[in-house]
Hints:
The chain is of the alpha/beta class. Among the domains are: 2-157, Alpha-D-Glucose-1,6-Bisphosphate, Chain A, domain 3 (3-Layer(aba) Sandwich); 466-544, 2-Layer Sandwich (TATA-Binding Protein). The chain is built from 18 helices and 19 strands. It has a five-stranded mixed β-sheet with strand order 1-3-2-4-5, with helices on both faces. Strands 7-6-8-9-10 form a five-stranded mixed β-sheet, with helices on both faces. The longest helix has 21 residues, at 303-323. It binds 2-acetamido-2-deoxy-6-O-phosphono-alpha-D-glucopyranose and zinc ion (ZN). Residues 22-23, 363-365, 382, 384, 386, 515-518, 522 line the site of 2-acetamido-2-deoxy-6-O-phosphono-alpha-D-glucopyranose.
Amino acid sequence: xxxxxxxxxxxxxxxxxxxxxxxxxxxDASLLQSTVYRVGILAALRSLKTQSVIGVMITASHNKVxxxxxxxxxxxxxxxSQHWEPFADALAxxxxxxxxxxxxxxxVKKEGIQFDGVKHAEILLGRDTRPSGEALLEAAKEGVASxxxxxxxxxxxxxxxxxxxxxxxxxxxxxxxxQDYVEQLSSSFRCxxxxxxxxxxxxxxxxxxxxxDGANGVGGLKLKVLEKLLNGLLIEVRNSSxxxxxxxxxxxxxxxxxxxVAPHGFGSSDAGIRCASLDGDADRLVYFTVNPESSGAIxxxxxxxxxxxxxxxxxxxxxxxxxxxxxKNNHQARLGIVQTAYANGASTNxxxxxxxxxxxxxxxxxxLHEKAAEFDIGIYFEANGHGTILFSESFVGWLEATTNELSxxxxxxxxxxxxxxxxxxxxxxNQAVGDALSxxxxxEVILQHMGWSIxxxxxxxxxxxxxxxxxxxxxxxxxxxxNAETVVVSPPGLQEAINNETGKYSQGRCxxxxxxxxxxxRVYAEASSQEAADxxxxxxxxxxx
Length: 545
Ligand code: 16G
Ligand code: ZN
């Protein structure tokens, strides 16, 4: 068979066991040839099974440049169905071509996959700027080609969210090229700019430039393309892939958020300027300002605060819509907020005070996304800067009908504008996955809409001091949690001990969880002062050890 021929050229490395974790397969790039080839096969089977276009993205996101990884985008543009993850693991670890073929045959039978279905398999392939990506993409192509009739489209260098967006758009029957992505984002951005209330000042004049750290990756490159179409929004990109710096080294959203320092290329001369940082594949976004007093220190505006800004804006539009008079088809939209236990406690309190419904899920995009999809409008964000706003199809349909009705009856009314803003937001913000590029555009237009500087935004609430630690343990799977990772159920007694420590601190909050991407147990602690948060984290780390 085709598979036997090509798989014998992609033998798995010995003694390495890979698992399809929260971020797909990830490892040192030199180990991944056979894994990526096999993910190509997996994607083709997934495409046959779902009779839809499937995506394969080659990236290791914020990890070091020598790493790489591969993950699948499902028909809706989201993560691979969890139900297929065990098969992905088995495929990646099959020791020989014969065993690989046997696994495939069994799985094809079990899933009832038809090779002579109406549609042949179609796979969109993308990669980030890692040098290892080119050869790995070739391996993925060979994997796809080993399935009869399957077609792979090589889209070259993309951000992860662009690839997910294209899969989502293709399966909705929309135009789905990179150019279509750029056009949709830029036109909905301009639409939102045109809807800014005229009495609101467009900034205070002193800081209307945005400076973006591109993590030496793909995001800066693509942002420069977008920027030309934004009608005068000034964006200066630093640390773009073509600038020659090392991907993710001392730069990028993960570094900035975890270390709370300015990325390479930013210094005291940037004090007070609005800055943002993307991660290596541009699916995370944080904002910051450089602190003039101490070198390298920043004021961080993290995912929680981006979520808060989005929630305020959406809530404002919904309440304008609710106040409109005499409409027949009234509809109280359900707005839901989704966070993880890493959300700063001050953000959760703030959102609760606004009267919003808050849901907690375990860490990992697939959990947050799934929860957010239950609402008319669901906003999810991880503190690390990954998140988006999901609009349900039925709500978008209602919005379109309402906009038409309002345009006919009360053109130019506040209600019509609010409806148009929500519609434009649903087109601007990526519906498949968190996207730093669409996120940055939405933040920028909302700040202008509110007439706010980054400082005003950052003052929405004050983060509680927090500390994250990681503990190397013999077996991280020994730690089992429940209630969105806030409670340890095993080993027995550990949660009581954590409660006991936490009780000693004013505003103390602490949880531990096994990492999904590293062989460590993570500790998160929050308290009323930095010293207290540090001390709580340290004593709980000792309990875990
Ligand atoms: C992955 C997740 C991210 C999560 C992080 C946690 C996706 C696409 N990415 O990067 O959402 O925050 O893992 O890592 O799901 P950890 O389990 O090592 O703490
Ligand atoms: Zn990323």
